[in-house]
Amino acid sequence: MSTFKTLKDIGDIVGKRVLVRSELNTPIEDGKVSDNYRVEKAVPTLQWLSERGARVIVMAHLGRNPEDSLEPVLVELQKFLPATKFVHDVVGDEARKVVDELKDGEVLLLENLRSNEGEKANDPEFAKALASLADLYVDDAFGNMHREHASMVGASEYIPAFAGLLVEQEIAALSKGISPTSPSLFILGGAKFETKEPLLEAILPRYDTVFIGGALANDFLKAEELEVGTSLVSDGAEGIKKLMESGKILLPVDVVVEHEGEVHVKRVDSVQKDDKIVDVGPETIAELSTKIADANFILWNGPLGYFEGGHSRGTEEVAQLVADSNGYSILGGGETVDSIRQLKLIEHFNFVSTGGGAMLDYLVDGELPGVTALLKQK
């Protein structure tokens, strides 16, 4: 694994202005944060800097709407860091005024980065303006490291850059997923084969077994010339057939289907044209349980059923099996993590990643735009 500078390399930071890219993209309901998981994950790096006398400037994005404000997140941050301020600005005069007035140990949260078009476009002028707010840059937003945004790859070109505590932990844990201990098991759910194909091509030589669930399994069953009814599918039959030649891919043997408002369990060769596959079945879970029990290393990303439609049972049962196993386990993907948190099983996994897409991209070749940006500083 390539190395980059981390907080232990940062030196004396008393009175230094430190620009931190955090991941604070939290759900907001009725003007309040409804789930502060990402805030909690962001706090350790901010506390570390604040306790050492840095003047901390936090930037992040929220939602898809540029008009969405990060102000509700302030309330959550202040629970951990009472001396946190907020400004409805990013790089303008108002923001600069508050930055200039910061005292040692204080934290300032800037407005939603999406409010400036230069963020997504990785505009050099916007990146330079962000960097001009501070003396040092810290990237602690692993979940966004696969995106070439100004706050992720641009700002670090102008001031010394370091990885935050969360990014350091993520890279260390996920590097184990690139070279797993045998016997190894990769559980992959979600949808869209075309986005997962590069990942599958990369991990099949490394893992002993790859179980495919979720809507992604529909693509594989269809490629095997089995009926999938009205289930969600995507293209990729030729690529799937090639991957199946490895002999390492494990597919569902039975599924839960919806049919005219009723739910049934069927063998995969018994699905009808008007059935919709919504989850993995009990025989599949039983077969997967043996693989889980025998594995020394388990990596899981993506739900195994139609989560949005309330079909979470398969995901939950597998989560319990992995939590009870003796293998080293890594979990990632928003819906999967949400399910495990609701089941209060988080502490039973060795590592839980804050990244979904970033996690999968990193597992392909150990590279991400955000990581490359940090390595340029070496």
List keywords for this structure.
single chain; Rossmann fold; 2 domains; alpha/beta
Structure description:
The structure is a single chain. α3 (93-101) links the parallel β5 and β6. The protein is elongated, with a radius of gyration of 22 Å. 50% of the residues are buried. α1 (37-51) crosses α2 (71-80) and α11 packs parallel to α12. The protein has two domains: 7-171 and 368-375, Phosphoglycerate kinase, N-terminal domain (Rossmann fold); 179-344, 3-Layer(aba) Sandwich (Rossmann fold), CATH 3.40.50.1260. With 378 residues, the chain is α/β, with parallel strands linked by helices. The model has no long low-confidence stretch (mean pLDDT 94). The chain has helices at 37-51, 71-80, 93-101, 117-120, 124-131, 150-154, 165-178, 193-203, 214-223, 237-244, 282-294, 313-324, 334-342, 357-365, 369-375; strands at 17-21, 28-29, 32-33, 55-59, 84-86, 107-109, 136-139, 161-163, 184-188, 209-212, 249-250, 254-259, 262-267, 276-280, 297-301, 328-332, 351-352. The strands form four sheets. It has a six-stranded parallel β-sheet.
